[in-house]
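Why do we care about 3D structure at all? Because function follows from shape, and shape follows, mostly, from sequence. That is the central idea of this module. The next example makes it concrete: a single protein chain, its amino acid sequence, and then its structure expressed as tokens.
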Amino acid sequence: MSRSFYSLIVALAAMVALSISHAAPANPQVLIKTEKGDILVELYASEAPVTVDNFVKHVNSYHYDGLIFHRVINKFMIQTGGFTFDLSPRQSERPTIVNEGSNGLKNKRGTLAMARTNHPDSAQAQFFINHKSNKFLDSSDKKLGYAVFGRVIDGMKVVDAIAEVETATKQMYQDVPVEAIRILSARLVNTEAWTPLSEVQPKAKKLSFERPVPIK
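And the structure:
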């Protein structure tokens, strides 16, 4: 091997090592195990830091374990984060968060966004997965939309299966799956990729039913 060729190999190896050391850090990922299968989601902490922090802290406190997808609309979205199998509410112990809907992320198929009431800054624990792209949920110059904070990177077939189940009106709630579909567990799989934000301590508000509203 000539000295010049050896020097070239060394230089290339150094360039590769340098590019790896400067690579963007991995995004946090959460594995959501459901009775229909597993959904792996990637979270966008750079674009939605408050929302991702809030979501991961709910995950780490096991808030989502045992909850159901309580609102399912085929070709719109599937929603969870607030009710057990008998529609008993599970209140979050965390405060409501600021709406990060103007972060540039769009409500495309497979993305995760926070559910909320009509008040823009009322999101707390409930979230939904867009079953199709829902542009009307995005922010605009005239309104704050629904804050996207992640996307499904594996398991969209499970999302499809949940979206297609039979639903009915139960108690005061519409679009509830006839057969309850539970989240068995939700876990952060790469803990090193998430750095918690400092806590703010306002009292959590008890909110009315959180929901995005479909176009009629």
